[in-house]
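Notes to self after the Tuesday call (sharing in case useful).
The group wants a holo model before anyone commits to mutagenesis around the pocket. I volunteered. Ligand is magnesium ion. Logging inputs and output together so the record is complete.
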Amino acid sequence: RNHRVAVIPGDGIGLEVIEAGKQVLETLSQKSDDFQFEFEDFDWSSQRYLETGEYIPEGGLEKLSTFDAIYFGAVGSQEVPDHVSLWELRLAICQGFDQYANVRPARVLPGVNSRLKGAEKIDWVIVRENSEGEYAGNGGRAHRGHPEEVGTEVAIFTRKGIERIHRFAFKLAQDRPRKKLTLVTKSNAQRYGMVLWDEVFFEVAKDFPDVTIDRELVDAATTRMVLKPETMDVIVATNLHADILSDLAAALSGSLGIAPTANLNPERAYPSMFEPIHGSAFDIAGQGIANPVGAFWTAAMMLEHLGESTAAERLMAAIERLTASGLQTKDLGGTATTQDATRAICSDIEQQ
Ligand code: NAI
Ligand code: MG
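Result:
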């Protein structure tokens, strides 16, 4: 099998960790006669934007649409406002390819220290609605610069958009041993979109009687994640809420440098995109010390999506041996470089 993967390293440490991830994927495919990768690199980045005025060149999305998957680093630069870089590149792809299900697993890998007591009980998948809601881009500003200036940012929730993400989350919960799904909203303070979210959730729930459900307001959900991590399994939440909860989940599981994300178009009408959860990390970019584990775990999710379950399991096992070995980057309290970690995991895979 041949997998055509579009690679968009982006900015900052995105370049470093995606290069590392590609090496690991190459090593895995060399170990197996079953599949190979055909990578194509895209220089869509803030540097490109500063030089040409665009992140994605004309016809770029059409070209991207022919690939089997997209492996993405991070976008964000000190020279470009974040709302420009995010919308022009990452959201342009997610929304352009209707990648409405953003999936973020969280657990503490062996050998990783979490500051949270009882963190070893974390085993969550956060399902984030990725196409509308608070990030629908619906709003504006009136009376610019005037003392009476007003800015609006109005979330849009559609029944169709809500129903498909709930269905996706229920199916995912159904496939896990505990079969639990927690609905997170803020439907006490927000009376329209959030209440619609709740209603549609309970309608969809009728089709999944084997899934145990409960609900939590988003503020209470943060405390429950910290105080009773073992009571949660799959969590479904809106674009904004799940964005925040998944960063919390990543930090509780040890480091932002470890957590992966899949942006899925479950119907497979368009390619899905896989990226570590972290950003371009200005403070450590260019130093070669970024933790590549998030990019490796991301690669494992991509393999799974491409139908290479055996290779995905092999990679996950190699990642766990790496973290357990004590070879750790600075964010985890160690002194290993990105390259040290990459070399170690590649030689481990070669020896298996
Ligand atoms: P960030 O994730 O880049 O960094 C937050 C902190 O975590 C920093 O101290 C950083 O050094 C550390 N960190 C992150 N990944 C790490 C890794 N792999 N290894 C070791 N340490 C790691 O978030 P921040 O600082 O809020 O944003 C920086 C830029 O990245 C901004 O322009 C932001 O818009 C962008 N960003 C892009 C994302 C994306 O492309 N999906 C996601 C988050 C932020
Ligand atoms: Mg985030």
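Two things stood out.
The radius of gyration is 20 Å.
The mean pLDDT is 96.
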